[in-house]
Hints:
The protein is mainly α. Helix content is 72%, strand content 3%.
Amino acid sequence: MKNTNLVYGVKDNPGVWKTLVLAFQQVLAILAATIAVPAIIGNGMSQSAALLGAGVGTIVYLLFTKFKSPVFLGSSFAFIGSMFAAFGGAASASVGYLGILIGAILAGLVYVVIAVIVKYAGVKWIDKIMPASVIGPTVAIIGLSLSGNAIGDLFKGSVLVNDVPVASPYLAMLCGLITLATVIFCSVYGKKMMKMIPFIIGILAGYLAATFFTVIGLLADKPALQLINFGLFKDMQWVPQFTFIEAFKGFSDAKDFGSYFVTVLVAYVPVAFVVFAEHLADHKNISSIIGQDLTKDPGLHRTLLGDGIGSMVGAFFGGCPNTTYGESVGCVAISRNASVITIVYAAIICIIAAFFAPFVTFLATIPSCVMGGVCISLYGFIAVSGLKMIQKVDLNENANLFTVSVILIAGVGGMVVEIGKVTITSIACALILGILVNLMTKKSVKAEATKTEEKAEVSKDVEEEAAVAEVEEK
């Protein structure tokens, strides 16, 4: 794997000030999703703690991967159902915190076990059951499956009444499109640094536009113009509510803990196997961007250990199991900055920011429409990077055509399977189906490859005979 399209490679150091700016861009890229999970779960979960957990978890991941993988870890949406189950089956909120901490440890241990197996079994089996015809469309689905979120956010402001945005959806769309247009302009026509930080400039442009309309709305008492919820500054959480502190309280009032443990076990462990599939797809994607196969160097066992243990450590503080973020991968692709030191800085910024309430609150006030404008490009780049992987796949061969087709339709169609409290996501369903179709049609691909080789050999022999005959004639 080689890639000459990067401005900064994995081992490059852009310099302190450039790195700080690029790191802040990474933080903005992962922010919305990272703090959204605790907001969805509720029960007093802290967004600041989740941000800190993401930062600490990322540092752990980088340590295990020998600082060779430029990926940020953030709160995983896949475990939302599991976390609801932990709180729903708890005798009290404190026991619920204890449950989500135990669940995160169990999920992390699944990764550790798989990592040990991979360490001794190698990764050749991955290339066999998941060639480009499987991984490519699966990566594309990661971006396409998020497209609904991006477009949905494009029409929303941050001011809610009974959980419903009050601002005009068309005004929100305008601010989102201003953000998107700015990102595109900076990426295409920008020079030097501007070309590398399109998200920061885009978000600032969108935020300024939203602020302009919000101020007019407040002065004229027109809710339809109010896109930014400045009221969040009144209820700032100055001290993060760490999960481990609340979990320790749960020891005293835990009743019938045996059955509750089983509930948590069933809610978390199967989901960890599902997220493993997304882990593979994310790392194949970033590998194609940086021109280095991360499943071989530093090795899939290391990325799994980093993800699993990083998730445990992150949940210890923030409660949310972490996972590698497609938004982070998209940021690397668009900015063409794969410098791992940027990810280190981004993690440190998250850790420090968690203790500075005004900064976290400011980030939380960024309206959904502005982030929607950014995410259109982010998720689009993820989808396109997956499609690039299919370029070398022979789609004239029916075996490959069926494999790619099944994955795309299952993923775009939103195929989701629910077994009890376990939800197999559309990405995981698409990948599983793709693997099955690939294995089912593998003989056909091999047979076709053999025929091609035989034809090549015959053609080579004919050419050699013709050359000999020509020499003899002379």
